[in-house]
Amino acid sequence: MKEQFLKKLQEYPVIAAVKKPEQVDAALDADCRVIFLLCGSIFNIQDIVRRAKEKGKMIFLHVDLIDGFARDAVALRYIAQTIAPDGIISTKNNLLKAAKELGLLTVQRLFIIDSMSIQTTVKACALIRPDMVEILPGIMPRITKQLSQQLDVPVIVGGLVSERADVAMALEAGARGVSASEQRLWRNEA
Fold this sequence. Notes:
By secondary structure, the chain is an alpha/beta fold. 42% of the residues lie in helices and 20% in strands. β7 (155-158), α8 (164-172) and β8 (177-180) form a beta-alpha-beta unit. The longest helix is centred in the middle third of the chain and has 14 residues, at 115-128. The protein is globular.
């Protein structure tokens, strides 16, 4: 499944980062092949996941931000078996570990704020072994390049990405994908 994810990023490297329910339809109709769902609740995510899969898109749930679930292994088991997203995004190591055991793809979301957080990122990835990491903010090519070279998992960047030039810079620095909430980047238009 990881190979399928990387193939979809190769086809179109911008990931629709959906922060509001009213953005779901735009993401489903966009050129992007992957959706990071950063909103929703126990009441609507199953339908959103179903619709994304019907459109041939991969969808990841940011489980730290979905309402109505405990942040534990039992909730993840329910999500994996009943809702069936392609993967999850989290900042929490215990959730990433549990999700991997359930066969979900995992994206470890990391905030890079100083040189210590770079070291912490490398150590955390070695310990948790996520399928991918998403580093934020996504407009820091030097750090993207450094982590892309140090980690043995694909790097995705996100946060503050608002221009096509930001996407190009991130990809040039070694990112495999770019998550963006800026809807005009979800389409392959000039």
